[in-house]
Each structure stands twice: as C-alpha cells, then as structure tokens.
Amino acid sequence: MTTTTKPHEIVERALELSRADGCVVIADEESSANLRWAGNALTTNGVTRGRTLTVIATVDGAEGTASGVVSRSAVTADGLEPLVRAAEAAAREAGPAEDAQPLVAAGAADPRFTEPPAETGSEVFARFAPALGEAFGAAAAGGRQLYGFAFHSVTSTYLGTSTGLRLRHDQPTGTLEMNAKSPDRTRSAWAGASTRDFADVDPLAMDTGLARRLAWAERQVELPAGRYETLLPPTAVADLLIYQLWSSGARDAAEGRTVFSRPGGGTRVGEKLSPLPLTLRSDPAEPGLEAAPFVIAHASGDDSSVFDNGLAVDPVEWVRQGTLNRLLTTRHSAALTGLPLAPAADNLVLEGGGDVSLEEMVAGTERGLLLTCLWYIREVDPATLLLTGLTRDGVYLVEGGEVTGAVNNFRFNESPVDLLGRATEAGRTERTLPREWSDWFTRAAMPPLRVPDFNMSSVSQGV
After folding, report:
1. Are residues 444 and 352 in the same domain?
2. In a domain, 440, yes or no
3. Residues 193 and 284 in one domain
4. What's the pTM?
C-alpha cells in the first residue's frame, strides 16, 4: 500500500498513471472553520478538512478530441488508478468535444507547488470571537437579539497537466452574516461582510448599524406596489451585476439568445449601456479581492472549458465608462465569435461613481426607498435579463433626506442592464458581500446606486 498523500504527489502520480493523449489533474485541498450564534449566544462551531481530486482525460480521434471528467472526494493514492481509468473511459465513450483546444503549454512551475496546502482553523476567529461577545452584550442591553454565522475557508488548488504545467493557488474566503431581531420578531435587519482573514470586520460596529435600522422600523408604513425612487446598497448592486456577468457569455450573445445580442445579428459590444461613467471590471490581483490568476475549470460549460485549465486570467473591463467592452469567452467561443479572449476572474468591481456615501445619498433624497438587500433572485426572461426577487430585512422610507420609517417588503421585476441605463447616481465603491450569491461568489466591490423608478411589482409579506 502506497503512502503518497501529499497533494502535489497525488497530482504527479495521477499524471504518471494516465494512458490518455492528454491529462489534467486538479487537487483541491480545503479546510474551513465556522461559528454560529442565535439569541445573543454561540450555538455551534466546527473545523473541517477535505480533498477533491478531478481528473480530465483527453483522447484524440479521427473526428476530433474527446474529453472525460471524473471528480471524487477523499481520494488517496490507492484510489488513483480507478479514478484515472474512469476519466479515460468517459473520454472514449464521449463524442468529440466541441470546445477542444490544445492543452495549455507549460511555463515556469510555481515554486510553491510542492509545499503543503494552506490551512485555516479556529484561530482565525481569535480576535473576532471576543468582539462578537461584546456585540452580544450590547444587543442584549438594547433589547435586541443577534443571529448569524461566520465562515472561513482556505482552498489550495494544485493543477498539473501532461504538458508539464504545474500551478498552485491558495484562496482564502470569509463571510460574516448577522441578523438583529426585535424580541417579538416583527422587525429584522441584516448586515454582511466579505473578508479574507476576519482581521478587518467589526461585529460591534455591525450591531450598532443594525440597532439603528431596527429603530427605524418602529414606525411602520404600508405602501402599494409601484415604481419608486430607490437607493440600492452595494450588496444589492453586487447580486444584480454578478448575475449580469454570469449571463454575459459571448457565444449565447452572438447566437441571439441574450440581452447582449444585437438585433439583426452579432453582439452589443461597443454599445453604450449607461449614461454614468461606470466601469465594471475583474482583476485577479485586485487588493483585498485577490483570486486565482489562472483558469481552474472542473467541467466544461457555456463559459468555461476544461481545455483552458492553466490559462492566464488577465484584468478585464466588462463595461468601460458606461460602454459594453467585453463578453465572457473561452478560447473556443472567442474563435467562434471573433471577440477577444476573456475568461472571468473570481471577483467583480463596479467603479466610476462619485465619492458619496450611502448616508449622503439618503440625505439628498426628497422621497424614496432605501433597501437592505435582495433575496430569491430568479431569471424571468434571458432576452432582456429580466430578474425577479424579493426585498428582505428592511425596506425604509426616506422623506426630506431622513429615514422616517420602514415599509412592507416587495417583489421586484428588473433587469440589471436596464438599471445601469436608468441609474442617475452612483456613490462610493466599497467591498461588499453579495447576499444572494454568497455561497458561490463573495469577492465584490460596488457603489450604491440611485434608480429613479425601480419596479416594485407586488407587495410581499415577508419580514
């Protein structure tokens, strides 16, 4: 029985075992730590460790190259050969892959490729946990109850290929979500944060903000459905624009299936989307939002290709100064559409607004609504990217530059592309946690937006 258990050794051994024409091996080593609390008291905490190994086999044939992908968890060296053979069998049984490209050529190996994986543990909360205890005390003294969770993970990804590519990336991911509720549960407020290490989050300050929102909700105002001037906070803007990014595949646009399709053929690249000088961009090296600088694709899809594994991910401006500048492409879809290669980095930044805070935007509002966050977002029409969803945990009425109470929740119907075209003001860009997509996408920085006619299509009875 072999004792090979180090991730880089697992990758090397899987490549040695391969009999396919090409092979890509991805080892993901993940550790995580979490805290949960309810009613101003910690309830659970835990630490986990895990490994997932993905083997991608490519087989050349007379009609083209086929690929087979198999992923398994908790793989040891002794389970490697069955996994490699399963990937090869899947490739032989598949037809030629439409996205087939030569595997990425080797460059300089990452000097950290043979080092142990990075790890997290309960020590990541060493400073956060005592501050959370102070927040519990402040909340109890103020007659409110805190609920929520803190989660931190570190994933070390080891990528090796039969071309000699040896890359490694360590990705820390942290999220903090906190709800404050009144004792009778009729009032609720939410706040969240994204962090790499929990050194830059302040639960006591978060509780102070939640207390102010609960106080706003002591006055309740019922409003009907309709179009309202609305201030969208950064978290809501992030949720909408992340979905826009996910929907911006070049091939679908070129084939006339999305909001980015030009009537009569082609795409809307080069078209003005917003009168504001807004730039929507991704950059693996963005400070505080660092992400993998190379493609990590565990499967092929509309906007990803296993053949692109290891390809460099460069900074890209999806929207530049209000104009659509790029669409998501793999090497295959770039060749099909004639558009530049633009794989997505795992972060998203919107900037180009003013240096105005959300509080200052409230002060400049005669009458409108201030949202906390959006929830249960679903697509209604891909041709316009019309989305529907709910407001949650606080919709506040602004009158004369001040918040004067809370109103009922709503269902909304809006397209993020249309919102960019109708927004009349953007505030200061800040790091934020996208609440709806936080299980999949956490690295975002957005400004608040003012929309003069946000469509609250119906009243919702949610809190």
Report:
1. yes
2. yes
3. no
4. 0.96
